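Inputs:
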Amino acid sequence: MTLQTLSESRAHGGIQRVCSHVSAATGTEMTFSVFLPPAAQNALSLPAVIYLSGLTCTHANVTEKGEFRAACAELGLIFIAPDTSPRGEAVPDDPAAAYDFGLGAGFYVDATMAPYATNYRMWSYVADELPQLLAASLPLDLARMGIMGHSMGGHGALTLGLTYPERFRSISAFAPIVAPSQVPWGQKALSGYLGEDRTAWRAHDAVALVESGARSGEILIDQGSADAFLAEQLRPELFKAACDQAGQPLTLRMQAGYDHSYYFISTFMADHLAWHARRLAT
Amino acid sequence: MTLQTLSESRAHGGIQRVCSHVSAATGTEMTFSVFLPPAAQNALSLPAVIYLSGLTCTHANVTEKGEFRAACAELGLIFIAPDTSPRGEAVPDDPAAAYDFGLGAGFYVDATMAPYATNYRMWSYVADELPQLLAASLPLDLARMGIMGHSMGGHGALTLGLTYPERFRSISAFAPIVAPSQVPWGQKALSGYLGEDRTAWRAHDAVALVESGARSGEILIDQGSADAFLAEQLRPELFKAACDQAGQPLTLRMQAGYDHSYYFISTFMADHLAWHARRLAT
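Outputs:
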């Protein structure tokens, strides 16, 4: 698990790095970015947030467009942005090379279906391998980690966070897919990676997880009202209903006029980071 | 001069637009971005800053990576980002398609040399056409405009600002080319666009302009100490010496460890915008 630094730039008083390593989970070379706030120069351990990106993205989208560095620098938060799938010529893609399955669309599961099961293990990569790898070389406190994400990455943040509340102590999401079992993007991905037995899908569906008793601290979700995917793919009202029913604390904010883009994400990024930092302070 | 809106997204409470129009100056279709802060919904006229990008860039680089929207929203500043050259199949490029001449490298001059003279008229485009075009449809106060830029765009901001101090009331730059007549990037561009007679270059060289008596209010420059282009292409010490000699007020800040990238620009963007806003307040 040798970590290679691909680039390093000073930014907002800290360091923005892009790194790669051969992943034991995926069997591929994985690239991610990590921002170290100025406090990392002296602190022995800092809280960290993992940000999971949406369909088609790599680490680069949020790293370039996310506007997270000023807030992380001020709050003393490490910001970690992994890729959204394994990559490489040996990695099987969607047969039709669609944008919503295969490369760039790992959906944060450990696939069980051939030919995807070998490499598509983003669940283990995000939950286990990446935090352990980073904690070995950075002042990262594994007991103070939060998780957040956008769209497909919001799905990953909710499912990973609800499954491991002791590992991810705070959860937030921008325009997440909350009920993949009930929407086209999710149905395609879960059937392709996990097969047609829908009982296996429940562990990767935030609504089903909450219905089955999974709990976290208060969850924060921002959703743009002008998001083109709102009605068909995102359906936050399903998560709201499940949380209300189960007594899972949720703050769901509909943001008037905002779409699905990084213009939306970057607008509310600092607010989400402050929210995580408060919950990860001690 | 019909203005076409290519995209529009809500961001930081305002509106980020990308627009195109057929330019009288360049004879081509030009694309630019403009951010309208929330105050634009009610204000009759707002101050504006034109941001000129560096080599290889389009409007998109700063629009995505510049981290200017939060500050512009708070300060009530309109932010305008034009392209760096004319584009299109009919526009002559560098014969070798190099990154530092031709497409993406207009150097903010009105070319006089064939075959560039027809389209490469970024000086007139930025100084005249674009502000007039925008003022016709937006609450933009032409009497309260500032100009800023990065690298080649810093060169453009300095030369346009020093030439038209009544039009551009505040000037700032990130890692600007300050003496194109004395560095490889500038010598290639100015000889290609303006010819070998170096007297014609002086109007497009910030050091020469200050030596010839051009003046502005205080100019702000940030320069990273780890910038790979610092010693050969940028040479801010030449501008410092010219300003000191001439009594032109200049704040030149060397920023330790910062490189030439948008990680550097975005770090100091809010600071530059506040600096412009103070000078454009009335």
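Remarks. The longest strand of chain A covers residues 140-150. Strands of chain A lie at 4-11, 14-22, 29-36, 46-52, 78-82, 140-150, 170-174, 219-224, 250-255.
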